[in-house]
Structure formats: C-alpha cells, structure tokens
Amino acid sequence: MPEQRSNPGGPSLPPQEGRRAPDAGRDSRGVLFTGDLLLALGVLGLAAFLFAGALNIRVSPSYAHIGPRFFPFLVSGGLGACGLALLAQAARRAPAKSGSLEERPAASGKPPVVGDAPKPAVYWPSVAIVAAALAGQFLLMERAGFVVASALLFWAVAFAFGSRRYGRDILVGIGLAFVVYVVFTRLLGLHLPGGMLTTMLR
Amino acid sequence: MDTLKLLWDGFAVAFSLKNMLWALAGVTLGTMVGILPGIGPALTVALLLPVTFGRDPVGSFIMFAGIYYGGMYGGSTTAILLNTPGESASIITALEGNLMARRGRGGAALATAAIGSFVAGTLATAGLTFLAPALVRVALRFGPAEYFALMVLAFTTVTSLLGGSLVKGLTSLLFGMALGLVGIDLQTGQARYTLGMLEMLDGIDVVIVAVGLFAVGEALYAASQLARGAPEVVAVRGSIWMNREEWRRSWPAWIRGGLLGFPLGALPAGGAEIPTFLSYSLERRLSRHRDEFGRGAIEGVAGPEAANNAAAAGVLVPLLTLGIPTSATAAIMLAAFQQFGLQPGPLLFQNNPELVWGMIASLYLGNAMLLVLNLPLVGLWVRLLTVPQPLLYGGILVFATLGVYSLSNSLVDLMTLLVIGLVGFAMRRMDVPVAPAVIGLILGPLAEQQLRRALAISQGDFTVFFTRPISATLLALALIALAGPALARIVAARRRKSRVAAM
Lengths: 202, 503
Hints:
heterodimer, A: mainly alpha, 60% helix, flat, B: mainly alpha, 20 helices, 75% helix
C-alpha cells in the first residue's frame, strides 16, 4: 500500500500490523527543536500555575510554623529553574543545524546511553485512536456497563495497533471483559457497573 | 544471633501453605509481566492495590515481593529473545544476550541469566537479612531533620542517576511532587490545587499516576511507533543447559555482579541501572575473551543480570528500614504499606516482625521458585512473546482502566488517568524519565511533612539541617551526588573536545 505510506501524518488508516517502513528523515533537527521548546514552555507554564495557586492557598494568621504555602513555592521555584534550564538547552541546540549529531559519541563497545538516537516520527492517527478509545471508556463505563465499554476499548485499541481482524478482536474483547467482570465482582467482591449484564446475570 | 531467630520465625510464616501460594502467585505473575513488553512490576503492583485492599497484609506483601523479583527474571528473557529491554536495567542483557541468541546460544544466555539471578538474588537477600537490622538501629536515632536530609539525598541521587539528563530527571521529580501537593494539607487542613473539585480533596492516587505513566503513556507511545514494526523473536535453539566452559566463565561474573549490585542498590542512590553498567565494563576488562564482547559474550549477560537482581534486593533495604523508595516499584510498594496503614521504617521492624521477616524469608523461597519457573519452564513463557501487539495493548488498557476505576468507582479518576497518560506520552517522547515522577509523588508529601516537623521543633530555625551532624553529612552527600555527575560530564566533554582538536 504505497499510497498509504506516502502520507504518514494524514488521515489514512493505520498500517497493517505495523509493517510500514520507518520514515527516515522526518525527524529533522527542526522537529526536535520545537519539541524541546514546547517542553521548556510547558514546564514554565506549570511552574507559573503552581506559583499562582500557592498564592491562593489560605493561611490562617494564627499559624506560627512553616505553613501550607512554603512547599508549593519550593516546588514551583524548582520547576521554574528547570524550565529555564530546558529553555537554555533548546536555544543552544537550535542554531546548530548540523554537526551536533556528529558530536554524539559513536556506538563503541561502551554501554548505550538511553535516548541517544534520533527519534522516528510519531504516527499520530494511532495515538488519537487510543486516546479516543480511553475517552470512550470514560463516557461509556457507567452508561453501558463495564463489559460493553471494555470490549469496545479493547477493539478500538487493537484497531489502532493495526489489527484488521475485527471479528476476532471483538470476540476476544467481550470474552476478556466478561471473565474479568465475573472474577472481580463475584470472587474479589469489587463493584463494577454491570449495565445490561446486571439483569442478565441475576 | 537475634537476626537468625527472627529469620527462622519469618520462615515459619513464609512456609505456611497460604503464604506459599501467595508467593507462587506473585512470582508467576511477576515473570509474566516481566516477559510481556509494555508492562512491568511497578504497574502490576499498582493495579493490584485495589484488589488487596482490606485483605491480609502479610500475604499481600509476600505476593508483591514475588512480583518484584519475578519481574527481574522475566525481563531478562524478553531482553535476550526480543532485544527490547523492558526496563533500563536490562539494556545490557539485551545487548549481549540477544547477540548470543542470534549465534544459537540463546539457551545458555537464558540459563546464565536465570541461575545468575538466583545466585546473586540469594546472596543479596542474605545481605538484606543482616544489613537491615543494623540500619534499623541507626535509623532509630533519626529525627525529622535527618529524615528530610535523607529524602533530599534520595531525590538528588535518583534524578542524577536515572536517565540521561539531570534537568529532565529533576523536572520529572518536581512534576511528581507537584501532583503530590494536590489535596488537603495534613497539618493545617487547607485545600491545595483541588481546582474546586471535591474528588481532588483526597489527592491524586498513586495508582492513577503510575498506571497513567506506565500503562497509558506507554501504550500511546507504542502506538506512535507502529511504523517500526514488531521486533523479531529469536527462537531458542540448542540446549538450554550451559556447557562446562560456559559455567566456568559465568560463576565468577555472578558473584562479582552480586557483590557490585547489592551495595549500590542499598544506597539511597538506588536503581539497578548503574550497577549493571558497572558490572558490564568490569567483566569486559577482566575477561580473557574480550574480543567476544559486542558479539555475544556470556560474561556480559551473567554479570549484569546478577547485578540487576542483587540491586533489586538492595533497593528493599532503604525501603524497609527507612521508608525511602529509590525505584518506581519501591515507591508503589511504599504506597501499598500506606494503604495498610503501615509506615516502613524502624518501627515496622518492632511492631510487625511477622510481616517484615515473613516477607524477607519469602524472598529466599521466591528466588528458588523463580529458578524452577524460568529454567525448565522457559519454553512456556516464550510463547507469551508471540501474543500479537494489538491484543496485548488492548488487554493492558482494559486492565488499566479497570484498576483505576475500582479505586473509588469514580469517573473523575478515569479522566485524570487519560490526562496523566497524555503527559506520560509527551514525557516518553521528550526523553523525560517517568520513574522520578512516581518517586516524587510518594516521597514529596513525606518530605514536606518532615521538613515542617523539623522546623516546628527548631522554632523555624533553618540551620537545624546543618548543625546536626547526620543531617549535615547527608546534605553534603546530596550536593556531591548532584554536582558530581555534572562535573564528570563537563570534564569528559572537555577531554573529548581536546581529543577532537588534537586529531
């Protein structure tokens, strides 16, 4: 299916059982740079949020010791410092268009450093389907019941991971969800929303 | 010989039929999740917390310990046959072990990993048995200032040693601590960062964070990497028994790995990553077959795998005696203690000897069970590797949402799970390690408590941390741990640059 391969970021279906060739070169230095920048900005944003939130924590005037604000200030200050350091790292990396890749230690006999290799591209459609499937579990858990919601979650995740054996996937999903439901509610005494099964099993 | 008496009593607890079944369940489950890519012992224990709530704590902890040890054994099998290390501590095993498997010595690689894990794991459990009571006597003299200093040391070592970047490790730790701030402040009863939601008053449960980061984040990341295709499973060819030459080359590596792994794991520095790297370079230097390294040398599997298991046992020393978790799984186990209303530390040894010593004794038993489970029966486990990825991740997410929902039957928890999962995916993508976040979430509130307690005792005088000798020493060590690797990196970078310039 070459026409699918040529459009990895587009709305095409996920690849069959993940047999697609890796997209070499999609992850240019530019992509890496924006990622670093986003990370730094995100951390700074979280630090600002924590700081603002710490100001809103009420402190009783009669409380003499270190109050409930102190630690939040400490954490937000630390995160702010980390965010600035990440920002500096992102800025330092940005102008080096080439050359910084060569500076990395070559794969000698030494143990590999985690995350040293340039990362392959993200296949967004699959990520979106998995996230949507989890949101579906949130929406359906109490409306349709655990078994129905979980079977759908299972099916959708399998689809996102490239499975196209729809029948098998839904059967396995229903079977798994049903066994888990019976074991957890009957044997372990946990409560799970039964949905329509409550009437069937009773 | 007090310790031997206590251990003897522990064996009486561990060898009851009920507890042996708990141990067997734990090691079996642990091996399974260790082998399955995408899940590990930390996630499994987290998912089991709601199930064990209100049950027998002794049996539960014997099972958790079994899962913890079993995960280490199972992880090596995946590393050898699939070349995808389930965790950073198996990177080295994946390196040499997979090459051995490709050369047709996969059986021997599995055998040396399993027997080495048994030898080093048993040695290290013995180390735990005798070191823990000694450390408990020291810990009894610790006040809030010392505990706070100890936690600062744990924070710095965990972030500077786990993963590649110090800043990213710290960011992850502080993110976890920020999540730990949510909820009611224990000392004053003030609500913090609840966003006006009643559900948030109790704080964000560690199960949600662990499952979000380890299961949901991991699944999203795996989905994003579909293009790379499933890794190939190397079939086990040849005998699973080692020949005489391989035995002769393995056993010194096991002993050295064990001796290296246990003390490094027992330090509040924690983690099994460093000892495996150290063991690998040590074996490479000592080996008479140095040319084989990088092509599948058996010492390169035996040493690091032994170090890995010994370090895993070592991590239990600060967890049980001081209540300081230094790995993600240890952090979840600390949460488990809290769930049962127990606080690890010297008092646990005094008040719950049955639990502590029963658990330690069960580790000897679990190691023996794991040797049988992972050597003669390895063929059964290998079949798990052939579970198709779509079904595997479908199942993982069903269990993930189930575990989180059953915490308190709350949909808010499921929403939080998705949000934290998306954060976990971003962290994975940006090479921010997730383990420090879990440690920060658990240890952050405890550190705040000790800090405020220490300052209340000292009437707000901050010098208390520097005038008490133990606390001052611990803080100095923390500073070294923080600055040391950075300095070493700068020196190394200078040296590399000058070498490049010389060329």
